[in-house]
Amino acid sequence: xxxxxxxxxxxRNDAAKPASSAARDVRGAGxxxxxxxxxxxxxxxxxxxxxxxxxxxxxxxxxxxETGTVWVAVxxxxxxxETFAMHAGVAIAAxxxxxxxxxxxxxxxxxxLLSLWCGWxxxxxxxxxxxxxxxxxxxxxxxxxxxxxxxxVLYSRADVDRxxxxxxxxxxxxxxxxxxxxxxxxxxxQRLRAMFPHAMVWAQNDxxxxxxxxxxxxRDERAYLSPRIMNPQQSFxxxxxxxxxxxxxxxxxxxxxxxxxxxxxxETAALAEFARERLGEGERLVLxxxxxxxxxxxxxxxxxxxxxxxxxxxxxxxxGGTWPMNAGPLARLGAIGLDQVxxxxxxxxxxxxxxxxxxxxxxxxxxELTVRxxxxxx
Length: 378
Known about the structure:
The strands form two sheets. A six-stranded mixed sheet has the order 3-4-2-1-12-11. A six-stranded mixed sheet has the order 5-6-7-8-10-9. The chain folds into two domains: 20-118, no CATH class; 140-371, 4-Layer Sandwich (Deoxyribonuclease I, Chain A). 44% of the residues lie in helices and 19% in strands. It has 378 residues and is an alpha+beta fold. α8 packs parallel to α9 (298-305).
């Protein structure tokens, strides 16, 4: 047997070299794989947490009249999960991408299903719009639409020129403004009264003043809707196409604290009760403004159960996001639909649009509504 000796006469074992090199390769691969294993573990944590959150939000009963602190706090968590489910779906899509790139197929499948679940509302909305576009036939002549424009002017800090440009271009029959202050009266009052002969104005130097303007005569004007709603919700009736239509300028409290959220829940319940009563009496009803909640939330379900429908679901385009508009150029991509137009009682929706940024944190919304004949079974 041939034995190799080194320069110092010692025995040199060349066979040990490949084994030593392989060990180094294994250690190197282990070091490279370790960050991927950590990311994968975090991915599974994200998938598990998001799945649990979505299941919890789906099963949690709203009970908007419940005022207990613990119940309201847990409901706030469910509300936020429902509100930002789409954003969670986008985040989970990143886990899908990582899993596919690293050939973790079980993780990819689980994350994909979860992402679809989170975005199911968005998928349904876009699918409905696509179906409307495919099945749309020849337009038939309809009565003139009642054009309702709603805008939140951010404590009257919105850009005056942009606000007026939208109003002058769209020429609505009814204009509903939230966050109307004394400053708004100075900036807009005279110009709007020249355009709209009928007005209800309630200035407050906080976030809850309102102003409603109309080219049509207003009657049965009310500043407050219910004792359970602490701030003005202007209500009035106009005549359109020979029919009376009640319009409500909505601005509910934002869910910025547990205390505010408790009040917002009560306000939404009162609004739903008001709608149910009015629709039960055969009124045609429009609720438009800043609801500070999405249609997909428990608050939206309460209003839907009262007999109202979303104009955006019927005839909108895109996701209908309106807030926040002052968070940079990409704000609209992740915006949520807090500003809505809801209808009931024989009103049809011809179109529903989210308009351009007016320098507020909310985008304006414009709906074209038509009067439909409702047949009632005896």
